[in-house]
């Protein structure tokens, strides 16, 4: 288990946007943290009310959004428009090229979300978009598959051999960990015990195939578990 502590992440303060970078991103470059397998970006973003990312391009990247608090308004050049709320997972396959914008949909409340980039399995595909809701009851005390290559079990599909599980664990609550290969476990919020060590929001750990992963809630833990080839 290799631990990536929350306070070791990159940080950017743009006034309207405060962002923590688990891996190298924009002006934050750390040769020791360029990504993990095909997982390239995990940015924890906090956006002021009424502010956001204006229309900008992407190409050949699988982009996932996971909202923690507030509402995020999405618009793109494919004609999609939606509002994301906590429990929603959105996937945008940039493919040959797409324009999109993301804004805090409320003027007086902070938007808190994770922006996740995964390198695609196939490049040059047609741009695509998908969004699904995973209510808290589907994630409470269990690992819910929310993203997979085939979109199985009602998950969001993605153009890569990746499985993403989300779980909510109260104090003392645990569930059998899904079978994983290379794994990245990210504490989204709250506190959890991972293999006997205490993890707080923003902490993460990498695991090689065959390593034991035991997670238990300590205080309102929300966890994401990436299974990567």
From TrEMBL:
Residue limits of the Pirin N-terminal domain? 9-118
Q: Name one Pfam family in it.
A: Pirin
The answer to keyword Iron applying to this record is: yes
- The UniProt record gives the binding positions of Fe cation as 56, 58, 100, 102
What does the UniProt keyword field contain?
Iron, Metal-binding
Where in this chain does the record put each Quercetin 2,3-dioxygenase C-terminal cupin domain? 145-228
Q: Which cofactor does it need?
A: Fe cation
Coiled-coil zones? none
Q: What's noted on cofactor binding?
A: Binds 1 Fe cation per subunit.
* InterPro entries to which the protein is assigned, alphabetical: Pirin, Pirin_N_dom, Quercetinase_C, RmlC-like_jellyroll, RmlC_Cupin_sf
Q: Which CDD domains match?
A: cupin_Yhhw_C, cupin_Yhhw_N
Q: Which GO terms describe its molecular function?
A: metal ion binding
Of which family is this protein a member? Belongs to the pirin family.
Q: What is this protein called?
A: Pirin N-terminal domain-containing protein
Q: Which organism is it from?
A: Halomonas ventosae
Record lineage: Bacteria, Pseudomonadati, Pseudomonadota, Gammaproteobacteria, Oceanospirillales
